[in-house]
Amino acid sequence: MMNKFLAGVCLLISAFAMAQQSSYSPYSYYGLGEQRFKGTAEYRAMGGISFFADSIHVNLQNPAAFSALKLTTFSVGGTTSFADLSTEDMSQKAKRTTLDYLAVGLPFKKGGAVFGLMPYASTGYNLVNYSAMPSGDSTRTYYEGKGGINRVFAGAGYEITKNFRFGLSFNYNFGTVDTESREYIYGVQYGTRESTSSRLSGFSMDAGITYEGKIGKKLRVYGGLTYTPETKMTVKNQRYISLIEESNGGYSTIQIDTANVANIKVKMPSAFSVGGGIGKPRKWLVGAEVTFRNTAGQQSRFGSYGNVQFENAIKYGIGGYYIPNYNSFTSYLSRITYRAGAKYEKTGLMLNSKSIEDASGTVGLGFPVPGLFSNINLGVEYGKRGTVYSGLVQEQYVNVSIGLSFNDRWFLRRKYE
């Protein structure tokens, strides 16, 4: 059993490294890329709220919740995204499939530990721009980017009292982002190509607290705080300038030179979230959460942006779940968990003096596996990011997520030999 589990983990880690389709968003060019949701499918389906702990689901957003696990938990999840990218005069469809997280949770008497792997940020775009030069010549420029930053994490939570839990998670962030631009002038035989490869690495940490108290005999009140201090990420850059010639739908390199570009350090912004809610255990819950990120003054992977600006980011989320009858023996539909939520976010990115905003609604279902503590969680998110005005791009997207949570009792002492 253990050998099969370890083999499965190795295969999934390999798939994680190979299956990342990065991003379809042109906004992923800026900063550290498109910030990825760092939670599981079940929390994402509730608007991304993370202030409460669950005994059979790993809460990756608040490490204090690790101590609530009652069973050894193996969680894996992925998302397929469909998007329409629109400007004022044209549109294009995009699609990506990603593995979102891979985590193992181990419970202890008054605590729990979780380790795993997830993406932190993604870069992926393929654009073309046609423009006229002051001389009257026309140019055609292609912009391409791919790659991202992944995160290996390990953390632990502890139940301080019956009401309070505390936890810490330590992360190693690493990845490579490759970008290039190719420019052609009509009537000129050769074009130019500039390519940059950035290798990023750095450490970070997260701290969290959760609270759970009683209201009367049946209701519970929940609260949660998380804090991520600002850290630095090292960026090692390599840049090449090439003379190229178009051929057979592609291009061939005529000459290539190395360009000097400095290695830099960019900040991973600090973040703080606070949330709370009310509910009846194993029946229903509703709550809200707000997250602040100190993204003002963010840099690119290889220096400043010129007139592009960053402001502090803020995200609001509301959501909850409902279970008709957790212990029903006659109706499987009554044991399904029904989830819903919504979020609104100012991403922190400003282009042409316009804040890039993101808003979405979510729904989800949690299907218990008969005879086991395991479950399958599905979620659908519909949203919009950006705008077609001010020369920008609007992304209208649908994210379909699936998460698998396998739970079992490990490390039990045998009563009989």
From TrEMBL:
SUPFAM superfamilies: Porins. Residues 1-19 form the signal peptide. Keywords: Signal. The keyword Signal applies. It comes from Flavobacterium silvaticum. The keyword Signal applies. This is Outer membrane protein.
